[in-house]
Specification:
heterodimer, A: about 350 residues, alpha/beta, 5-stranded parallel β-sheet, 4-stranded parallel β-sheet, B: about 120 residues, alpha+beta, 5-stranded antiparallel β-sheet, about 30% helix
């Protein structure tokens, strides 16, 4: 109970922990698939509050972490073209590609700019009409509607010097793939902000086809503990279902306007996930209708052969079959200041969260 | 300041509009923060998080249902969902506690020369 004194709602935390201990009879592994949950769980030392029957594992919930090295290589190749400005979220800048990173390329003089929003990239496009602005679109359903809105806005404003290199992905396929791959999971802590957009319906098949419960959780310690309690109760009663604990924000139908934008701009395609390989219909591709904004189609580049990671077990960590300290690079060759793999680069990555908040 | 507080709580640290100086900070895409609508012009709003102000698109929400003083969940420049003031303040309080706790740990780490967490 490392940081229990720091919690707000100490009594509520203790009450929930007591109820979980009482309810949990059988061994249960709960996976979270949201970077925000990874951080909160480690930060608050939640695993130490739980009875030995419950094990929490991190899944592929960090968009930076699951993005392929080939994508980084593609972005770098675009940045090396004349008159191209690459705009990216800061999260991606230090992720190693096969032989370089966006950070290194920036230092070498390429025009690579960190943006907070696709709207910033549009602004850059507006002020640099003679340049071609490529926005690196990564992220799950929380972030992809913003990219869709950006493309729609660019079209309306006639900003045809703006394009997107899409590596957007959707959450349900990896959740199913992990179960298919035989990873031992008895329930999912559902991502809070992804579900704000998607609603809860997209998880129904996990309860129906796989017999696993999903509880969409908020980010405070009491939210996470309450969600764990809900999952434990479902599991012990053998009644898996989809529940929303974070119901003060997440609606069952999601954000219909954002979903309509996604539908307008993107279609699904098979996509590669670190640790999981190619998953059918798991990535988002820009529709033909908006090909004028698709950097994949606009620029012809030759990519270097993708180099594999040296000793980095990020893939296994994303699958929940290894924990950061299992990696021989962890805390030695791989630290937040000098990361080897994406799980250490991103703040939401399991390795970075573990490094910061765990003693082992 | 640690790399973590730098990134995660950038919203609290930043005093200026981020829209035109995004390079000045390490933008973190994964974070969604509660922000208060200060003004609305077309589908854009000026939102505040503590002392920081942000430009936010309201394109994903029903603008007719939004008013100055409402709180929204802000993610990469877009308001994703209207939230209650109570929810917003609770979450911001959590951020502040995170930040204060991290700073305290950093101070201890500096003083003792040892890594605590």
């Amino acid at each position: 109970m490392k940081y229990i004194d720091e919690y707000r709602n100490k009594e509520l935390v203790q009450l929930l922990v007591g109820q979980i201990r009482e309810a949990s009879k059988h061994k249960m592994r709960i996976m979270e698939v949201c970077g925000g949950h990874t951080m909160a769980i480690q930060r608050f030392g939640i695993p130490e509050l739980l009875p030995p029957t419950i094990e929490l594992i991190s899944g592929p919930g960090c968009p930076v972490c699951v993005t392929s090295r080939a994508y980084i290589d593609h972005a770098i190749a675009l940045a090396r073209l004349p008159d191209v400005i690459v705009t990216t979220f800061g999260d991606l800048i230090r992720v190693p590609g096969s032989s370089s990173s966006l950070d290194q390329e920036k230092a070498a003089g390429r025009d690579i700019r960190i943006v907070y929003s696709v709207l910033d990239a549009l602004e850059i496009a507006k002020h640099n009409r003679r340049k071609k602005i490529v926005f690196l679109g990564i992220g799950f359903e929380t972030t992809s509607p913003a990219t869709a809105a950006g493309i729609l806005k660019a079209e309306m404003a006639g900003l045809f010097n703006f394009s997107v290199l899409s590596a957007h992905k959707i959450m349900p396929p990896p959740m199913a793939a992990l179960i298919d791959a035989g990873v031992e999971i008895h329930g999912y802590l559902g991502p809070g902000h992804v579900s704000t957009i998607t609603g809860s319906g997209m998880y129904d098949f996990i309860a129906e086809n796989y017999g696993l419960g999903v509880v969409i959780s908020g980010f405070e310690p009491t939210d996470i503990l309450q969600s764990i309690l809900m999952l434990v109760k479902q599991f012990e009663a053998r009644r898996p279902k989809i529940e929303i604990q974070y119901n003060r924000v997440v609606k069952p139908e999601g954000n219909t306007k954002a979903l309509a934008m996604l539908e307008e701009v993107f279609e699904l395609r098979d996509d590669w996930w670190r640790g999981l390989g190619i998953l059918p219909q798991s990535g988002m591709k820009i529709k033909e209708k908006y090909a004028a904004f698709d950097a994949e189609k606009l620029f012809e580049v030759t990519l270097e052969p993708t180099r594999s990671d040296k000793g980095c077990i990020c893939g296994s960590i994303l699958k929940g079959i290894a924990k950061p300290p299992d990696c021989k690079l962890f805390r030695k060759a791989c630290t937040p200041a000098d990361p080897v793999g994406p799980c250490m680069v991103s703040n939401e990555g399991a390795c970075a969260a573990w490094y910061r908040y765990s003693d082992s | 300041m640690t790399y973590l507080t730098n990134n995660i709580f950038a919203g609290h640290k930043l005093k200026k509009s981020i829209t035109f100086e995004p390079q000045k900070r390490k933008a973190n895409m994964c974070l969604s923060i509660p922000a208060r609508i200060e003004s609305i012009e077309g589908e854009m709003a000026r939102c505040s998080v503590g002392d920081a102000t942000y430009n936010a698109s309201l394109a994903m929400l029903d603008i007719a249902e939004l008013a100055i003083g409402d709180y929204v969940l802000l993610h990469t420049g877009f308001a994703l969902q209207k939230i209650s003031e109570e929810e917003a303040l609770e979450t911001l309080k959590l951020f502040d506690e995170f930040e204060a706790f991290n700073e305290q740990l950093d101070k201890e780490e500096q003083q003792t020369g040892k890594r605590i967490v």
